[in-house]
Batch of 3 targets.
Target 1
Amino acid sequence: MKQNLNPAVAKVLKRLRDPLDVILMCVRWYVAYPLSLRHLEQMMAERGIEVDHSTVHRRAIKLLPVMEKAFRRHKRPVGKSWRMDEIYIKVKGRWKYLYRAVDKAGNTIDFLLRAHRDKAAARRYFEKSIAQNGEPETVTIDKSGTNLAALEAINVERETPIKIRQTKYLNNIVEQDHRAIKRRTRPMLGFKDFRCARILLSGIEVMHMIAKGQMKDRGIGLTPAEQFYSLEE
């Protein structure tokens, strides 16, 4: 095991028999590409490496929260004009809602998986996004009444209100960005558990942000794969 590992990563990997480089490669492939766990098992077998698909899943659930936390310390600042929308994610056969937003340059603001699509869920998303990324000047949403109600409730408590725009065509950029997430989740055929869904989606979002160049400091001169692996340190 490397001596300069992130202490949180080292704690997760303690007593594990799997080589670190193999674990990290499998986890990265799983969140970076439209592959199922069975695909990963077969791909590693072709390389002479025996890795059970359930092992990859368990390691991903353990490692990805640590990697996300490390990434957030190196995430580039985002713009003040946000485009927000949500997509459907199937968990245990039922639709849940992944709230997401990007700025006008297409950089991911933040994301949050919620069980319900209502004012409370939308407000929780905006509060989390503001806490992590600072306050926006403008938020563009679709015609959703719940998203509008959530923003209006937040504005009541603010001295300078956030400007709200309900213009569908301006939200094309976030709808286009959704495709990368949908493309990756499609081979998973739905999630079995809400907690696992939340963790795996966070890993997919982190890898998507890295691919879009949203990692500062460590991202300079490194490939997206190298940037992901650097989060272990």
Target 2
Amino acid sequence: MALPDWEIGRALGIPIRIHASWFLVFFFMSWTLATGYLPDALPGLSHERYWGMGAVAALLLFLSVLLHELGHSYVAKRYHIPIAQITLFIFGGVAHMGKEPPHPRAEFLIAIAGPAVSFVLGVLCLTLAMTADTVFPGPSVRGFVVLGGLLGMVNVQLGLFNLIPGFPLDGGRMLRAGLWAWSKNLYRATGHAAMFGLWCGVLFCLIGAWIVGESLFGGGEQSVAGNGGWLLFIGAFLFSAAWNARKQASLRMALEATTVEEVMVRTPLVIPSHLTVRAAVDDYFVAHGFSGFPVAEGDSVTGVITVDDLQRVPQALWDWRTVRDVMSPASPDLFVTRDRTVKQALDRMARTGRDRLVVMEEERPVGLITQSSVVTFFQLHRNGRAQKKPDT
């Protein structure tokens, strides 16, 4: 079961949400700081004060992650890319972009914006900490100096970590921008950048496993075993994210390489617009088992009728209402030509909220492409089964 998340506010008009897994890492970071880093850096304080400072530091660290993601989002919005939300979760944060960047330069600038924000924050925090330590030496500002130094170092490390050239890290997105500019194909570039992400994930897992093994069985410091565990965790996450990105890129390449003609249902059944709803249900929907049909008046397609359209009509009125009364009227976005790619057809469906398009040639319907037909087509080809055109 998917864990819930909650909206905690907005920034730049973007909803900011916290995933349930965030609380786990927030507690872990607070505990690590309160029982390890802070007692070493600030000896002699109370247990409660260590925990309070640890919690404040953890919140500020996540604020840094949020600002990192807002850096990406600000540049993305400059390129008119919608940001659905920013989610803080166990591995940090992620900005959910509504579409891919329009060109490699946009991709590069969006990717580098996050690390740039982290580096600026890191230098600012370190500068303030060193200035405070120099101008106001003494125990009264020691806590500020320690927290400022911690935030500075973590932000610099966050920026450096994200520059690792493994997709979907920022460095991997920058690599994708370069490969995209070179190959002129976004999805091929994504696949190659994701391969680097896979290798980075494997490398992190191997290093993490070595650190854990050395700490537990090789006589190393027990305290560093947690660092190895985090590397294992991050490596597994990066490997999984890169694997999924590579699969998505392969699918999108296949969608771009496949035409509507290859996938469409040929010679689709067309319902006359004058038919009653009951006749349409009995003679077409029940008889053929499809979930939607084009509607025609004479030789012209005037709309589409689906199960959803039928369900909005009370059964008591089925004998009195015609297909023309309940269909979704035709508009230019209902039609597609057979030479279009499947990706173009699916993009139009997503944009208009339709689940099917009528394939036209010389102003007459020659086929039908649906979301389910696309899924069936690629399932059959992926599994090496019969090369049969799918039904709706």
Target 3
Amino acid sequence: MTTSTATAGQLSTSAAEIYDAFFVPALFGAWAGPLCDAAGIAKGNRVLDVACGTGATTREAARRAGDAGHVTGIDRNDGMISVARSHGDGITWEEGRAEELPFPPESFDIVLCQFGLMFFDDRVAALGEMRRVLRPGGRIALSVWDRAANSPGYAAMIALIEEMFGADAAGALRAPFVLGDLTAFSEVLEAGGLGGARVTTPTGTARFASIRDWVRTDVRGWTLSEFIDDAGFEALVAAAEQRLSRFVDADGSVRFPAPAHVALWSKGPEPD
């Protein structure tokens, strides 16, 4: 499977910094706790966070594993890892691909993957690698976004971007939702050896300080900069302020539902 830079979610360092400053508080940070809850991280656990991005979930896992544990974050995007390392909090950061994890078998008690599975070149191979590095009795917890249609703000933003900038630009923003269909998600889990995983669909909330901040996050903190220049950015802000006002609260902030699927799988003991 081949993917473009845009649909693979690959960011420059400057975009990763915007992602960390805006996307993490708007969306991803709020999901770190629930994913760690699902995984049942305990003091002393060895934890791997695959596709760790700038480390929001990794840092939450480290807080829960404590000084007796050890947490590693790995991401193939050097811009993301550079920003993650800048937080400097005793976590091991690695640059590498989910399909070829550079760790021995049975190295970790818990493997996490928050909103990364959608972007892997080979999802089945990546899940196989997660299983390989997990000890018997360990757990994999991963999340993917529900369908864009169930996140009304993003459904509307995708439609507006497609109208203004075309299908390729809209596709870059649609990419995070490609495993939102539960049947498709379940098929990937099954093919990757995670059959029988327990899947739930909690609803989170996307929050942005304003329409402008929302557009800045999606365009400058994601992969849309290759499609939308400065003039296009301002045009999109103006159009969104007019046409997406239903998502704006009285104080000017933006809020809308953003549900996700969370899968939990436990590795049984090896057969005799």
